[in-house]
UniProtKB/TrEMBL annotation:
One of its GO terms (molecular function) is manganese ion binding. One of its GO terms (cellular component) is apoplast. This is Germin-like protein. Disulfide bonds join 25-40. GO terms for biological process: auxin-activated signaling pathway. InterPro entries: Cupin_1, Germin, RmlC-like_jellyroll, RmlC_Cupin_sf. Gene3D superfamilies: Jelly Rolls. Keywords: Apoplast, Auxin signaling pathway, Cell wall, Disulfide bond, Glycoprotein, Manganese, Metal-binding, Receptor, Secreted, Signal. Mn(2+) binds at residues 102, 104, 109, 148. It comes from the Eukaryota. The keyword Manganese applies.
Amino acid sequence: MMISSICFIFFLILSSSYAAVQDFCVADYTAPPGPAGYSCKNPSDVKVDDFVYSGLGVPGNYSKLNKVRLKAAFVAQFPGLNGLGISLARADMEVGGVVPMHTHRGASEVILVAEGKVIAGFIASDNKAYVKNLKKGDIMVLPRGLLHFQVNAGDTRALVFASFSSDDPGVQNLEKSLFQNDLRTELIAQTTLLDSAEIKKLKGLLGGTN
């Protein structure tokens, strides 16, 4: 009986200490974000809709260049994710569509093929490529910080959902980094071994200068 009473009291103390811990930190978009992310909204102002996001129910804006529609549910769009270390995205790829080479500095990624057939892969730091043909229901993990891609490998539209191990995974697109900038063409040629004429062509296509 004495042991049971002690355990009960310990449980009450432990429960009280947990109650003092903040359960969540819904993003306050009225305050500027800092290096650590968004400030927390006053708990009294938090609503259930802060934890619900309906944006992934429809495709995103269409990229004619890559034949893909991308839609993100990161902390900038979904305040309830703030500080939780998770997020989602949607990619609708038309026939021939591509999610081009890119990296996420802050997250690993898991993709789920919901419709169609997709070739997906990543390049490890030792330059070994890991590539797989995926079908509906397949998932693949893309490790943090590594270049990766997806290509529609079928003759119908492909739909892919992606989850990330960060509420703000960040993204750096390889083609935009190289050709949508004001870095001089000759420097890009010297540092990539690409032909200057092709670099200028791609800069013109993607909006780069110099």
